[in-house]
Amino acid sequence: MMSEKVILFDMDGVIADSWQAFYQVFNEYLDNAGFADLASEVFLLEMFEGSFYQNLLSRIHPYTVSQADMLQLSVALTSAIKTCHPFPGIKKALQQLSQHYPLYLITSNFNAAAKAFLEQHQLAVFQDILGLDTHLEKAAKIARIQSEYPEHSLLFVADTLGDILEARNTKAITIATSWGWHTRKTLQRGTPDTILDSPDELLEYIIHF
Q1: Which secondary-structure segment (H or E) carries 144?
Q2: CB 207, CB 156: distance < 8 Å
Q3: N or C: which terminal CB in the chain sees fewer CB atoms within 10 Å?
Q4: 173-177: strand order across its sheet
Q5: Which are the contacts of 209, defined by CB distance < 8 A and separation ≥ 6?
Q6: Is 28 helix (H, G, I), strand (E, B) or coil?
Q7: Half-sphere exposure of residue 27: CA atoms within 13 angstroms, side-chain side
């Protein structure tokens, strides 16, 4: 039955074509914090090969990220996300899936940024948004939803190796998307259940899963 599936989506790199906006925000943040040597696309993409914020904090230790820093990042990312657009075809896929399954947004972005993006693009298709404000780790967010749907299959759609590895520590089926931030080669290191190449392919896979 269709109702036996719950679909969890990452936002950045799966729904939002937001890499350049994200990179510009964190490039400026790292530069201002005195870590200009880390302000590179290669470095930031490597941080997403695990838990992004934990990896980042371990590299800039003993620098302390204050509440003011977090507020600054939240405001900057919320502003930056407004310049981004959904990947072609993903809005249609989400709208169709939302007619049959509960959808949840599981993101490392701030809740405010996620809400701003969804509102701007008329994507009121999610039961809830579990962002950075909810928990640092995506595995914990997935486990929370699993506890609400103990008899359902959870499918988690993500575009980074770190997300796939976190989800594999839960009972979720892992769906990697090759149109996002990490390459297919990088994603394969996490041995996801499948790697898909387009939103249309994603829609078909979920419907027939």
Answers
A1: helix 138-148
A2: no
A3: N
A4: 128-130, 103-106, 5-9, 153-158, 173-177, 194-196
A5: 5, 153, 155, 173
A6: helix
A7: 11
pLDDT over 90, % of the chain:
80
pLDDT score recorded for residue 1: 40
Helix, strand or coil, per DSSP, at residue 11: coil
Residue 155 pairs with which residues in a beta bridge?
A: 7, 173
Contact residues for 103 (Cβ-Cβ < 8 A; gap 6+): 6, 7, 8, 9, 94, 97, 125, 126, 127
Q: What angle do CA 75, 18, 189 make, to 5 degrees?
A: 120
DSSP alpha helix (H) spans, 67-110: 67-81, 90-98
The per-residue pLDDT of the chain, averaged, comes to: 93
What pLDDT digit, counting tens, does each position of 88-110 carry? 999 999 999 999 999 999 999 99
Kindly report, residue by residue over 43-82, the tens digit of the pLDDT. 999 999 999 988 988 888 766 677 888 888 999 999 999 9
For residue 33, what are its two tokens?
A: 């914090």
For residues 151 and 29, what is the distance between their CA atoms, to the nearest angstrom? 43
pLDDT tens digits along 165-209? 999 999 899 999 999 999 999 999 999 999 999 999 999 999 999
Whether 46 and 39 have beta carbons less than 8 Å apart is answered as no
